[in-house]
Amino acid sequence: MEARCKFWLPKKNRFCANAPLNDSPFCGNHTPRSDAPWIPCPLDPSHSVLQENLEGHVNRCPFLKQTRSLSLQPFYQKGINAGNEDDDGGPLNNSSPGHPDNITSEMKRNAMHGLSVPEFCSLIDRIKSLHELVCGDIRDSFKVTDACNVWIKGQVDRKLPFQEKHVMQQASILGNMEEQGF
User: Fold this and answer.
1) Residue-wise pLDDT tens for the chain (182 aa)?
2) What is the pTM of this model?
3) How far apart (Å, rounded) are the C-alpha atoms in residues 29 and 31?
4) What are the beta bridge partners of residue 8?
5) d(C-alpha 94, C-alpha 102), whole Å
6) CB 54 within 8 A of CB 37
7) For residue 49, which of 57, 105, 149, 155 is within the disulfide window of CB 3.0 to 4.6 Å?
């Protein structure tokens, strides 16, 4: 049997499934932390790194690979959902702490949790009105191809995984694509 990390996971009622480090009974996630200073990762502050390992970490941080991959996509635009106004309705200053390059997930979460009920309702109303403005002329369209009808009417082997909600949505997507000539 292969060696496993000796860290007990009480919620899962089992030991960690990761392989231990060579010189430790624990994996890298569960090895007791060093007394050396830990600092937030400059690329993704949701995790921290030993200060002495920072230079090497920055080159191999999973967030870096994900960010690079995303930025190469033709549809990607950095900070597109961050907005371009401050709380007073004025444009953001590029060097301000609220500039899209400096907004973290934690900051977004804290902003949402800090809203009062009327502020939250106002935000929902703004989102709905913007959605109507941008998407008002998009019509609902439910089309189903003959091939998909076989699934929907249950004329197939039910031993295969089947979730009706998903099948209806997927059938409509296929029907609309077929209608558009894709």
Assistant:
1) 578 999 898 989 999 999 988 888 988 778 877 778 888 888 888 888 888 888 888 888 888 888 888 889 888 887 777 665 554 444 444 444 444 456 777 788 888 999 999 999 999 999 999 998 988 887 788 888 877 777 677 665 556 565 666 777 888 888 888 888 88
2) 0.35
3) 6
4) 15
5) 10
6) no
7) 57
